[in-house]
Design a protein that fits this description.
Blueprint: H1 4-7, E1 18-21, H2 25-35, E2 42-45, H3 49-58, E3 65-66, H4 70-75, E4 82-85, H5 91-103, E5 109-112, H6 118-129, E6 134-141, H7 143-149, E7 152-155, H8 159-172, E8 175-176, E9 179-180, H9 190-220, H10 224-234, H11 242-252, H12 262-265, H13 275-286, H14 291-303, H15 306-311, H16 327-360, H17 366-372, H18 383-393, H19 404-427, H20 432-445, H21 451-462, E10 474-477, E11 485-489
Parallel strand pairs: 1-2, 1-4, 2-3, 4-5, 5-6
Antiparallel strand pairs: 6-7, 8-9, 10-11
């Protein structure tokens, strides 16, 4: 029987223009996507050679160039070499990088296409750069289907690396309105940062859709199949998106064995892989409110606490009986509340992108980010064209929801939004993302917030000082005794 080295001997003589390390579903699908595009020859490597062999056996038409070790893998790729890593984020990624650095040369490029934390990407890029090798952190969205047929790709890294990898990534990216859904996001960790925020927005979008479904189900008594029709209709208008489309599909699915709606048989505990939590944690570090995203993350956490939820059955609920006088009007109110809350989620996400760019020195063009999210990715939606237009008209928008289109949309929706949040509260139907999004909206538009009282409290117990609206300077009050006020620092500070 031939050895692995003999099976992969072609890798020593063949010449690929890109290699893929890690052949689980995402890596295998990206390798197939690359191989199907004109001009690409793909080298493949997996730690366990049986996966390499299986992929070649299943797709002989791809013309893959296999290798059984890192040295052969490097030898099979033309210079400057480019390798796309598709392994589990964390230690596995570090291990592959270490092996590739041993066999790659200055000018070669390593791309991490996994869901890595952007600060890890910053660290890795700095370390790899010292060897003369370029390191690129690339966010890839679209799941298994997107990997195979065209994902949205968010690469960071140097401009030099983008010159080499740009044409390759454009060849496999999704296409929206004639444009490939990939752009050079910025240096070092910028690509993974933007992908992280993308996932945070995805959490919010999914939670808002779930709340809309829950409200309609409780308020109208419609079946999942009937609510599927509602979502299918919504998908023909301003809410048109991949997530609305698949929601309609999920809701109409019937369990073959029982004949019951499948959604009623799925355990109501939502999983998470960490990127939503990273989005919220990073926003806290940056001082950016992303309350809609945060509530979506917390809602998943709450759903996964079955013992607490079981024990909480003793807690009293509302006394009022929930009655809907006009089902069609109520459903339209839910639709508008969903649209308004969705605007807030995206606005908060782009606020975080802007803050991250300022903190880490990235030149991120927010309109370009909205463009590459129009296809391939999970949050792809008609709505994203409006975001691109908003930033094209005013690249310095202080908040996305202040753009004229969104101001009009929020004005049109806010009556419904307020009715739905009020109705949910009165009826005891949890709608944390709807309500927190409305509270954020009202916080932004408030002429004066109660933060003045909080500053007074902070100064009282901790001498944290405060500023005044009527004169310059930083002040502290002697709250005990004569309660006099003193200026603690020169006004120029």
């Amino acid at each position: 029987m031939a050895s692995h080295d003999e099976k992969a001997s072609t890798s020593r003589s063949a010449s690929a223009n890109i290699g893929v390390v890690g052949l689980a579903v995402m890596g295998a699908n990206l390798a197939r996507n690359l191989a199907s595009r004109k001009g690409n020859t793909v080298a493949i490597f997996n730690r366990h050679y049986d996966k390499t062999q299986a992929l070649m056996d299943e797709h002989p038409e791809a013309g893959f160039v296999p290798s059984a070790d890192y040295a052969s893998f490097a030898a099979s790729i033309s210079k400057p070499r480019t390798a796309l890593i598709m392994v589990q984020a964390g230690k596995a990624t570090d291990a592959v990088i270490d092996e590739l650095v041993k066999v790659f040369e200055p000018g070669d490029i390593i791309i991490d296409g996994g869901n890595s934390l952007f600060t890890d990407t910053i660290r890795r890029e700095k370390a790899v750069r010292e060897t003369g090798i370029d390191f690129v952190g690339a966010g890839i969205s679209g799941g298994e289907e997107g990997a195979l047929n065209g994902p949205s790709i968010m690469p960071g890294g140097s401009a030099q690396a983008w010159t080499t990898i740009g044409p390759i990534l454009k060849s496999i990216a999704a296409v929206a309105e004639g444009e490939p859904c990939v752009t050079h996001v910025g240096t070092d960790g910028a690509g993974h940062f933007v992908k992280m925020v993308h996932n945070g927005i995805e959490y919010a979008d999914m939670q808002l859709i779930a709340e809309a479904y829950d409200l309609i189900r409780h308020g109208t008594g419609l079946s999942p199949a009937e609510i599927s029709d509602v979502f299918a209709q919504w998908n023909k208008g301003e809410l048109e998106s991949y997530l609305i489309e698949i929601t309609a599909e999920v809701l109409k699915q019937v369990d073959a064995a029982s004949g019951k709606p499948l959604v009623d048989l799925i355990l109501d505990q939502a999983g998470a892989k960490g990127t939503g939590a990273w989005t919220v944690q990073t926003a806290l570090d940056l001082g950016v409110p992303v309350s809609g995203i945060a509530e979506a993350v917390f809602a998943r956490s709450l759903s996964s606490k079955p013992e607490q939820r079981k024990a909480a059955a003793v807690l009293p609920g509302p006394i009022d009986t929930w009655t809907i006088e006009d089902t069609d009007v109520f459903i339209e109110d839910v639709r508008l509340a969903l649209f308004a809350s969705k605007i807030v989620a995206y606005s908060q996400g782009f606020d975080e992108i802007a803050a991250g760019a300022a903190q880490y020195g990235w030149d991120i063009k927010k309109g370009d980010i909205a463009k590459i999210w129009r296809g391939g990715c999970i949050i792809r939606a008609q709505f994203l064209n409006r975001i691109t237009e908003a930033y094209a008209s005013d690249s310095g928008l202080v908040a996305l929801l202040t753009a004229p289109y969104f101001v009009e949309a929020l004005d049109r929706a806010q009556g419904s939004w307020r009715r739905i949040v009020s109705t949910a509260a009165h009826s005891g139907v949890p709608s944390p993302a709807f309500s927190s999004s409305l509270a954020y909206y009202d916080g932004l538009r408030a002429e004066r917030l109660p933060a003045a009282l909080i500053q007074g409290q902070r100064d009282f117990f901790g001498a944290h000082t405060y500023r005044r609206v009527d004169k310059d300077g930083i002040f502290h009050t002697l709250w005990s005794g004569d309660r006099s006020e003193i200026e603690t620092e020169p006004s120029s500070h």
